[in-house]
Amino acid sequence: MSGRVVVIGVGNPLRGDDGAGPAVVEALRGRVPDDTVLTVSDGEPARMLDLWRGADTVVVVEALRTRSGRPGELHTLTPEEVAGHPAGTASTHAFGLAECLALAEALGRLPQKLVVHAVEVADVALGAGLSEAVRSALPELTDRVAARVRQAYEGS
Amino acid sequence: MNPRGTRVLRLDALARVEGEAALHLRVDGGTVAETRLRIYEPPRFFEALLSGRGHTEPPDITSRICGICPVAYQMSACQAIENACGVTVDGPLADLRRLLYCGEWIESHTLHIYLLHAPDFLGLADVVGLARDQRAAVERGLRLKQSGNAILEQLGGRPIHPVNVRIGGFYRTPAPRELRPLAERLRQAREDALETVRWVAAFDFPDAVYDHDLLALRDPGHYAIDSGTPAVIAARGGPRAAREFALSDFEQHVRERQVPHSTALTATLDDRRFLTGPLARYAINGQWLHPVAAEAARDAGLGDPALGAICDNPFRSIVVRAVEVVHAVEEALRIIDGYAQPPRPAVEVPPRRAVGAGATEAPRGLLYHRYALTEDGTLTGARIIPPTAQNQTAIEEDVRRAVQTRLDRDGPDADDEELTLLCERAIRNHDPCISCSAHFLDLTVERT
């Protein structure tokens, strides 16, 4: 799977707020140009590398947890900033996104443009459904991702 | 550090292990007094979630237990439901299921070999270090893994959590020409898989021996993947011939019990410690490996599987996994070459009041499901016994042995860092999968 613009919602909908990434991807359908690749992933690096193969712009939508813990707060991160988040605090996946990007970098497979849009989680316990804090932040997060996709098509 | 005192090693999270688990190790003087692997195990949650659902739902719901081996959950679930309903799926539909499962074996084993396990043998911290050190090897691993992925995408409809599987078969079956590009890709994958065996066979392996009983499905004529009867080989010193028991008796033999230190249950097989997974499969099914895989095994120093060779060093499990990837590639090619599209994508599975069991060989080992249905197909009970839970006791024993062997060795005392690494290595030998847990990795080592 490849395309000029790829949006990857990372997460597991059966882990509470970890489903934020996939939920945003669902919400984007019909709101971005048809040839935008909308996809979800569990964040496993080999799959992530495949998903963005040949892409110019990659937008990753993630859930993240910080020590201060302000559920629903939105963050926009560059690859460098993601690399500064050690696994365990920044991601809920087997390998953090940081390791994934480090692997891509070591293999010369980092996309030209990559940005991470993330929302702080309240609850990643087993079970379907987003917390109120994350659910109410979702429209704004979706808007931001849609805007970023449009920007990519406009060539900026 | 006082080697005569007591010290406790607590690993709150294990690096490079799929999912969330923790290890507690207590050393009294020079003796390992306690080894407790703690697993946060999601299948229990799913068992409760399934109650009251329809009999067509378990394949889709249970596939969410694991992002790495969803097909295993789908296949065991389908078999259990079909068993309850008195339906057998065979012919091209069964072949397609095995093809899908081969994709998962290729993908999951390759992930473990390259991304999780190999760094242990090369003195590297992780796959990023490996990519810097041996970029071509990592590229090869990713390419091989991608070929397994391609099977999943083609047959499953998407690369993770396939959506094309249903009880009775598939929603849609491919035309033979749709599988042709896969075959081309798999011929390349065969070279990568054979190279992988040669690569891992040249690693340095610590001396170690396990003596767990071995449990795997046995399906004479086939290296069991998606079908077979549970078979057991006793630990060293015991009878080497495999004894079998009926799948319907599985829970009489494999008994789970609650232990205080883990939310996962621990299991015994006829009251003995046992191991399921590649080492067990190789011991029980080795004679049915494809010739190319059998030759790779011999060349890799695993002995002759045709003569019942057993690999009894858990650190060499990486070689057995690599051999199983070769087998899965060969099996996938064989299925594609002989494939004829079935007249319909699925057989009817009408519900009835019954209890059914199903078991298949997940990459990590035997995965058992049991479901109780009412006349209209409503689930009134579900039981899922994943390989990781079955292996927990054997893994603890391997950790104990590895640490004890190190403590018994002359030379400088082992510090906590060395012991931590050793524990993690012993655990990673078994590729435990506790997936779809959260994965917050931060390590705490505590001494008293």
From TrEMBL, chain A:
<dbReference type="Pfam" id="PF01750">
    <property type="entry name" value="HycI"/>
</dbReference>
<dbReference type="GO" id="GO:0016485">
    <property type="term" value="P:protein processing"/>
</dbReference>
<keyword id="KW-0064">Aspartyl protease</keyword>
<comment type="similarity">
    <text>Belongs to the peptidase A31 family.</text>
</comment>
<keyword id="KW-0378">Hydrolase</keyword>
<keyword id="KW-0645">Protease</keyword>
<protein>
    <recommendedName>
        <fullName>Hydrogenase maturation protease</fullName>
    </recommendedName>
</protein>
<dbReference type="GO" id="GO:0008047">
    <property type="term" value="F:enzyme activator activity"/>
</dbReference>
<dbReference type="GO" id="GO:0004190">
    <property type="term" value="F:aspartic-type endopeptidase activity"/>
</dbReference>
<dbReference type="InterPro" id="IPR000671">
    <property type="entry name" value="Peptidase_A31"/>
</dbReference>
<dbReference type="InterPro" id="IPR023430">
    <property type="entry name" value="Pept_HybD-like_dom_sf"/>
</dbReference>
UniProtKB/TrEMBL annotation, chain B:
<feature type="binding site">
    <location>
        <position position="436"/>
    </location>
    <ligand>
        <name>Fe cation</name>
    </ligand>
</feature>
<feature type="binding site">
    <location>
        <position position="439"/>
    </location>
    <ligand>
        <name>Mg(2+)</name>
    </ligand>
</feature>
<keyword id="KW-0408">Iron</keyword>
<dbReference type="Pfam" id="PF00374">
    <property type="entry name" value="NiFeSe_Hases"/>
</dbReference>
<keyword id="KW-0479">Metal-binding</keyword>
<keyword id="KW-0460">Magnesium</keyword>
<feature type="binding site">
    <location>
        <position position="66"/>
    </location>
    <ligand>
        <name>Ni(2+)</name>
    </ligand>
</feature>
<feature type="binding site">
    <location>
        <position position="384"/>
    </location>
    <ligand>
        <name>Mg(2+)</name>
    </ligand>
</feature>
<feature type="binding site">
    <location>
        <position position="433"/>
    </location>
    <ligand>
        <name>Ni(2+)</name>
    </ligand>
</feature>
<dbReference type="InterPro" id="IPR029014">
    <property type="entry name" value="NiFe-Hase_large"/>
</dbReference>
<dbReference type="GO" id="GO:0016151">
    <property type="term" value="F:nickel cation binding"/>
</dbReference>
<keyword id="KW-0533">Nickel</keyword>
<feature type="binding site">
    <location>
        <position position="69"/>
    </location>
    <ligand>
        <name>Fe cation</name>
    </ligand>
</feature>
<feature type="binding site">
    <location>
        <position position="69"/>
    </location>
    <ligand>
        <name>Ni(2+)</name>
    </ligand>
</feature>
<dbReference type="InterPro" id="IPR001501">
    <property type="entry name" value="Ni-dep_hyd_lsu"/>
</dbReference>
<feature type="binding site">
    <location>
        <position position="47"/>
    </location>
    <ligand>
        <name>Mg(2+)</name>
    </ligand>
</feature>
<protein>
    <submittedName>
        <fullName>Nickel-dependent hydrogenase large subunit</fullName>
    </submittedName>
</protein>
